[in-house]
Amino acid sequence: MIILDHTAVTALCRGHRLLSSIAVVEVDDPAQRAHIPALCLVAASLELPGAAAHVGTLPGLEFLNLEFAGTAAVEQVVSAGVDWAYAHAVYVAASGAVEGQVLTATPDAYNGTGVWAVDIGKP
Questions:
Q1: Which backbone phi and psi does 34 adopt, to 5 degrees?
Q2: Exposure of 81 by Cβ count < 10 A (0-12 exposed, 13-18 middle, 19+ buried)?
Q3: How far apart are CA 49 and CA 57, in angstroms?
Q4: Chain centroid offset of residue 41 CA
Q5: Maximum distance among all alpha carbons in the chain?
Q6: Res. 91: pLDDT tops 70
Q7: SS3 for 110?
């Protein structure tokens, strides 16, 4: 599973070529789309107002809600020292049946989490 954290979402909104190519390809199977955790979308929108409205129109993206069990897990991730803006991505990447890869502009933020962070570079 490909997961975009808040730094990847802001890079996408600013025209990152690789992320743009992923986001515009319409795929019938939602599991094959790039996934954006809800808290990552909130963090991106706080940094770049309008980000949620922009990415919400792109066909290659799937948005992940935060249910009760996820909320409790995200709370534990934050309590362990991970910034809240990254915590939902950590939870999604670590809890899925398929190992998730988090695309991010700040891979060091995932050190010690056990999450496979892929550096997207600069937009």
A1: -75, 145
A2: exposed
A3: 15
A4: 7
A5: 37
A6: yes
A7: helix
Cβ–Cβ under 8 Å, residues 30 and 72: no
* 73 contacts: CB under 8 Å, gap ≥ 6: 91, 95
Kindly state the average pLDDT of the residues 54-73: 93
What is the Cα–Cα distance from 119 to 123, expressed in whole angstroms?
11
The DSSP bridge partners found for residue 104 are 119
Residue 28 has what pLDDT? 77
Express each pLDDT in 21-57 by its tens digit.
Answer: 889 887 777 777 899 999 999 999 999 999 999 999 9
Q: How many Å apart are CA 36 and CA 64, to the nearest integer?
A: 6
